[in-house]
Design a protein that fits this description.
about 250 residues; seven-stranded mixed beta sheet; 10 helices; alpha/beta
Length: about 250
């Protein structure tokens, strides 16, 4: 039987993703058709997140597991767009009455950086192309817009902290202690590596790493960044698929 918390969080994720009355786009559909449906359903609507519902369930399950097992630490998403996933994180903490953990909201709030075309030609082509610039508006959402979205859902309070700037500048010296959940949605190779390099050492044993774009091989080198990091750190914890594009692992050592 669904609890009041379950019902609230189900409604919250559907509101954030504009899927209360409409089905979400199919991420495994034809890539061009999915892109166009994604722009219509998320970007050109009042949606606050464009991640699939299954990824919200993954966030909820990870947080619940860390709370149940007493894994210490705050929560962070690096790459937030309009703030939907971090609003949901705060909602989960609120639903379970958690008052001793923070949600860190890290983003440039200016859109995606420009990848080096010599080192990352695929990413540079996508970032500068008409779909990203004209349809997705370079995934830019201002800090003021994200704050407004938190406020609209009644979740803007002292447990929400913002880190504005490029990850290479903000994350290394961020005043974050332990983490129990780190969700990386920086899209590109360097943003992903910056997040892993700066945050993984703060992740508690038993905490979770979610890589939103691990399976997006047609436009990003995210998988390469993750695989290199795991190899360098001798991480053998299994990568688990959330769906065909998103994966996560639980830190065990």
């Amino acid at each position: 039987m669904d609890t009041p918390a379950d019902l609230y969080l189900d409604l919250l994720k559907r509101s954030l993703t504009n899927t209360i009355f409409e089905d979400e786009p199919d991420i495994d559909d034809d890539e061009f058709r999915f892109t166009m449906e994604r722009v219509t359903h998320y970007v050109n609507s009042n949606a606050v997140s464009m991640i699939p519902l299954a990824r919200f369930d993954n966030i909820k399950n990870c947080i619940e597991n860390t709370l149940h097992n007493g894994v210490p630490g705050d929560l962070i998403e690096a790459g937030v767009w309009r703030g939907g996933a971090t609003i949901f994180m705060r909602g989960v903490l609120k639903a379970f009455g958690v008052v001793d953990r923070l949600v860190w909201v890290a983003d440039s709030f200016e859109g995606l950086p420009e990848p080096d075309p010599d080192l990352f030609p695929l990413e540079a082509k996508v970032q500068s192309g008409p779909v990203m610039q004209k349809e997705y508006h370079n995934l830019a959402a201002s800090l003021e817009e994200v704050r407004r979205n938190f406020t609209a859902y009644g979740l803007m309070d002292d447990q929400v902290k913002f880190l504005k700037g490029w990850f290479k500048d903000t994350l290394p010296a961020a005043p974050i202690g332990a983490l129990s959940l780190m969700r990386l949605d920086g899209d590109f190779y360097e943003s992903t590596r910056d997040g892993l390099n700066s945050l993984y050492g703060r992740l508690s044993i038993g905490g979770y790493v979610i890589i939103d774009d691990y399976g997006e091989d047609s436009w990003t080198y995210c998988r390469k960044a993750v695989d290199e990091f795991r190899s360098e750190r001798h991480i053998e914890d299994p990568l688990i698929a959330v769906d065909s594009k998103c994966s996560y692992w639980r830190r065990t050592s």
